[in-house]
Amino acid sequence: MAEPRITVDVNGPVATITVSRPEKLNAFDIDMLKELSAACDELEANADIRAAILTGAGKAFSAGGDIKAWAAMTPNEFGHAWVRFGHRVFERLATLRVPLIAALNGHALGGGLELAAAADIRIAETHIRIGLPETGLGMVPGWSGTQRLVRRFGAQAVRRMALGGETFSATEAASLGIVDHVVETGAAVTAAQAYAERIARRGPAAEEVAKLMIASANGEDNGTAVEALGSILVAKTADLKEGVSAFAEKREPVFKGEW
């Protein structure tokens, strides 16, 4: 059996997701997307986790999608099995219950930048570069590079990367609001760990709800955020308990409108 290329390590209330394909600069193929989806499920199932870190093994954060993984696909396969599936997985990552911190220990290009954009906080090492090189290959960003990145970082920075092929240093990215903190080479994971521990000391329910509210205000899947917030609220009511009890006892519920 092949070694997993997406690993999850849990240390107290903090989980670390590592993209581990260093020989390919952590470029993604279909199997890695599936592993990342499974990692999200693992984090969601562990109620003790209060914050998560996302980073890459070796010298890169992620070079994005492995060209060899999609170049031979038919247009239908490319659109559905690659772009749409990857989009769903990255959306799963972006909507994790807990805050996610990306520790950019190396370059984040194309899908790698889209991966980093799924995090709530980005900490970049000073030597890295970020960009969206897809149009230079005759294609376009497909894992929310023209959607989530625009909502979170603004259209003009994305235009410069996607249309002009510009790449930004960590310092330039910080000035544009694409990364939140810049640290020395080799220090991103340590800084992310400290930030994650800072989050973990705060109220977990408040953190989860605040994350949903911020996403809603930013136009990120408002329907999901509203339904999640509403469901959490109703789940704590006396009326819900009465409704479930009445169902089990095969009687009409007596609702009192009590919170």
From TrEMBL:
<dbReference type="InterPro" id="IPR001753">
    <property type="entry name" value="Enoyl-CoA_hydra/iso"/>
</dbReference>
<dbReference type="GO" id="GO:0016829">
    <property type="term" value="F:lyase activity"/>
</dbReference>
<comment type="similarity">
    <text>Belongs to the enoyl-CoA hydratase/isomerase family.</text>
</comment>
<dbReference type="InterPro" id="IPR014748">
    <property type="entry name" value="Enoyl-CoA_hydra_C"/>
</dbReference>
<dbReference type="InterPro" id="IPR029045">
    <property type="entry name" value="ClpP/crotonase-like_dom_sf"/>
</dbReference>
<dbReference type="Pfam" id="PF00378">
    <property type="entry name" value="ECH_1"/>
</dbReference>
<protein>
    <submittedName>
        <fullName>Enoyl-CoA hydratase</fullName>
    </submittedName>
</protein>
<dbReference type="GO" id="GO:0006635">
    <property type="term" value="P:fatty acid beta-oxidation"/>
</dbReference>
<keyword id="KW-0456">Lyase</keyword>
